[in-house]
Amino acid sequence: MKKAGFAGAALALASAGWLVGAAAAQDFNAKSVNLVVGFPPGGGYDTIARVFSRHYGKYLPGTPNVVVQNQPGAGSLLAANLLYNAGAKDGSQIAMFASSAVLEPLIGNPQAKFDPNKFEWIGNLNRDTPACGVWKTSGLKSWSDITKRKVRFGASGPAAVTAQHAFFLKNVVGADIQVIMGLGGTGPIVLAMQRGEVDASCGMFISSVRGSFRSDYEAGNLLIFVQFGKNKVPYFKDAASIYDLVKSEDDKKLTEFVFSQAEVTRPLALPPGTPAGVIKAMRDAFDKTVADKEYLADMAKTRIEAEPMTGAETAAAFKAITSAPKAMIDRAKAVLTPPK
After folding, report:
1. Cα–Cα distance for residue pair 105/282, rounded to 1 Å
2. Which domains does the chain have, with CATH numbers?
3. Distance between CA atoms of residues 258 and 246, nearest Å
4. How do 267-270 and 120-124 pair as beta strands?
5. Which of 59, 99, 143, 162 is geometrically suited to a Cys-Cys bond with 240, CB 3.0 to 4.6 A?
6. β-strand 222-227 against 131-135: which pairing, if any?
7. CB burial of residue 140 (10 Å; 0-12, 13-18, 19+)
8. Is 25 within 8 Å of 281 (Cβ atoms)?
9. pLDDT for 221-260, tens place per residue?
10. What pTM does this model have?
């Protein structure tokens, strides 16, 4: 009788699990999925999105095509705004935008038309270490060089790390920096550095330096002078750590607040109000995709390290950011935003 009871309970549990999966599959019936990337083609966001899109569909109910659409603008705020306010709630539209954009409503950017806590997070494709670099013809090589004269930093928009991290160096560490915005993603900014239109750029994630910019970096054309990870990355050689440059306890706390969110590098979101069954189906497919051997082989070809986070982990990371004390958020607003 005990064996029969155990078998019956197991069957009931299995049936319940099947019913949940079936409900998720029933809720998700999109014929195609549009993955909006908030940056131009050619950069790290675009590269990883295109690799992911080739494998994600086979784990979604109905195996829909997943199509990447680049929607750059305002440091990926445009993509976040569009998904939040006009995104279809049936799973046919998802978006990848900078984690730095999540800070923008908190620090009072009127262009940020969303509540970051209301996005539904599918997962995060990789955790990355950001840095800033210069082109060899700039006459700059190290952090010491940066402190000796005015330096022009290229940036996309105020919500992008290319702007935020440059403003941090200016307003917290005291470097004499001019931030020139409107240049697009890191690809166009690097071209501007090569032409001598700007001297430097932040937003140089290790995945991009190892991938898109590897040949230039290893040839000594692109030089990394400061890195923002909690732990120093050997690949960035002798680049200074931001954690060594800040001195006061308050500055150290602010540094951790600002740069910890940068490590949730390439999150995928659904719009608010997406049904639970759709969220589950897309999260389950995400988890299967990032463990897929063919996906991992394709990622290895890009030299981007796959270190994903689940949807629940991604949501918890952003909740921790948005739940920071008001005094911390107010100070971040003061140091990360352009002067009025």
Report:
1. 26
2. 12-127+264-336 (3.40.190.150), 131-261 (3.40.190.10)
3. 13
4. antiparallel
5. 143
6. antiparallel
7. buried
8. yes
9. 999 999 999 889 999 999 999 999 999 999 999 999 888 8
10. 0.74
